[in-house]
Design a protein that fits this description.
Order of helices and strands: HEEEEEEEE
Strand content: over 45%
Shape: globular
Oligomer: single chain
Strand order of the largest sheet: 1-2-3-4-5-6-7-8
Helix content: 10-25%
Mean pLDDT: 88
Number of helices: 1
Low-confidence stretches: 1-23
Structural class: mainly beta
Distance between the termini: 48 Å
């Protein structure tokens, strides 16, 4: 009987460690933030806004203009994400970031994963002291190709998770 219990315990531990390994897929090095602590993770639902404009070659093409998204926690709106890029929490704290690393999304239609360094912030709420923002688990948001009329816009729906971190 002790032999069967040992085998059962070993099988349980192996399956639990396999499950934990699958649940925590490591981020690509360009997006990882080793040594930083997660402050908050928010889900975003919104659109990547593109504008039809002439490229360097004079041909019209869709160019990224800005994001616009609602930030959610447990299905409830707790903030917004917009051009800058800016993230604003309902407690009036906010951060602005600058992209410093990226990695491809899961499919060709997904915007890239990003690592952003916070360049400024305001307020004393939950985002106060955040030094890095990661955009992970992206779905959708890419839009490319020729367009017909300069100055026209297209919204490409997307979702992502934004992880707010601080050093230390």
């Amino acid at each position: 009987m002790p032999y069967l219990r040992t085998i059962a315990l070993a099988a349980f531990l192996l399956s639990a460690s396999a499950l934990a390994a699958t649940a925590q897929t490591p981020l690509p090095e360009a997006v990882a933030a080793p040594g930083e602590t997660v402050v908050l993770t928010l889900h975003a639902e919104g659109a990547q806004v593109y504008e039809c404009k002439a490229g360097a070659d004079g041909k019209l093409a869709w160019a990224f203009r800005e994001p616009t998204a609602t930030l959610l926690l447990d299905g409830k709106t707790v903030g917004r994400h917009y051009a800058g890029p800016n993230w604003e929490h309902i407690d009036s704290s906010a951060v602005v970031g600058k992209a410093v690393g990226n990695a491809p999304g899961a499919t060709a239609n997904d915007i890239p994963l990003l690592k952003l360094t916070v360049t400024s912030g305001r307020g004393t709420g939950i985002l106060s002291g955040v030094t890095t923002v990661q955009r992970i688990n992206t779905a959708g948001g890419k839009f490319e190709g020729a367009c017909d009329k300069a100055g026209s816009y297209h919204n490409a729906p997307y979702s992502a998770d934004y992880v707010f971190l601080r050093r230390g």
